[in-house]
Amino acid sequence: MAARKLGFAIALCLASPAFAGLKSDVARPAAPFLFTPMDERGATFSSDGDTIVYTLRIADYRQALIVVERNEGRWGEPQVAPFSGVAFDGTPSFSPDGRRLFFSSDRDGKGDFDIWTVARTAKGWGTPERVKGSVNSEANETGPLLTRSGKLYFVSSRSGGGDIYVANPGTEGFGEPQSVGSGVNGDYPEGGPALSPDETILVFASAGRPDQPLAKGNPYTRSDLYISHRTGDAWGPAKRLGPSINSRAVESAPSFSADGRWFYFVSEHGFATDQQVVLTPSVLHRGLATPQNGLGNVYVISASVIGGPR
């Protein structure tokens, strides 16, 4: 049974919409290199679909940004971005035109995370610089997302926990951030905002909310994905996404494709969260060598499942 499940997962991986252009209402691995025994985190896709940048995490100690390029219809080997590999970098996000990458990093040695950006040209990557304006503070800022309207959404702990903010563009960077409101932010930490291209759907991660089921084993709260719809100038009350997305494992790092048709997210579900699996030495050895070993993988599903376009 375990071998059949693993074979099915590999087959889904090879048939991913990122490669085959298939439509699916069932979440499946987004790409072979985003579904491995390593700990893949949030991925972002360039507007032309030929570049993927994702986070690779090594326990809680190291984190780097990985770049994969597609040339003549074939994906190359994943490479550490030339500007990454030393600091703790994460939460990458392409600008809508694909010319800049935004990400979070502790690279300046201040002891907190700030939002950085780096240019991307035909000649390669530029030198990262901290985002200008009022976005960064002495608290932690992560999860940047630049919208088509020029607004920057991000997560900050300046409120004491973790809330989602938005800042408008100004003459010298971004202006004073504002909370996205009580429909999204609450008494629980929020993170990883993703917006549909038309900026009417907001998906984010949150942990500890009372509607989240606790997994068996070590019953601590794990993040799930929530959705909010824009109502006028405000974001409506957030609702937990259903079982097509959320499981009893961690779900996080949501994002939309440039055309809004695909929804990507990270999940840790697998044999490690299946309490029906009897752990013997051989089962444990085999399970830890598979992509579904309890670490992160990036999945894709049709955005129509959460109310996006088909």
Describe the protein.
This protein has 310 residues and is mainly beta. The protein has one domain: Neuraminidase, CATH 2.120.10. Helix content is 8%, strand content 38%. It has 3 helices and 25 strands. It has helices at 2-14, 17-20, 281-288, and strands at 28-29, 39-45, 51-58, 62-71, 74-75, 79-80, 89-94, 100-105, 114-121, 124-125, 129-130, 141-146, 152-156, 163-167, 169-170, 173-174, 178-179, 190-195, 201-206, 224-231, 234-235, 239-240, 251-256, 262-267, 297-302. The strands form 6 sheets. Strands 2, 3, 4, 5 and 6 form a 5-stranded antiparallel sheet that branches. Strands 7, 8, 9, 10 and 11 form a 5-stranded antiparallel sheet that branches.
Looking at this protein, list some descriptive labels.
310 residues, mainly beta, Neuraminidase, five-stranded antiparallel sheet, 38% strand, disordered N terminus
The counted number of beta strands is: 25
Overall helicity:
under 10%
Mean pLDDT, to the nearest integer, reads 88
Strand content: 35-45%
Taking the alpha carbons of the first and last residues, their distance comes to: 34 Å
The largest sheet, given as strand count, sense and whether it forms a barrel, is: 5 strands, antiparallel
| Low-pLDDT sequence parts | 1-20
CATH superfamily: TolB, C-terminal domain
Rg over CA atoms, rounded to whole Å, is: 19 Å
What is the CATH class name? Mainly Beta
Going by helix content, strand content and strand pairing, the class is mainly beta
CATH topology: Neuraminidase
The coarse overall form would be globular
Helix count equals: 3
- Could you say what the CATH architecture is? 6 Propeller
Q: Provide the succession of SSEs.
A: HHEEEEEEEEEEEEEEEEEEEEEEEEHE
Structural domain count = 1
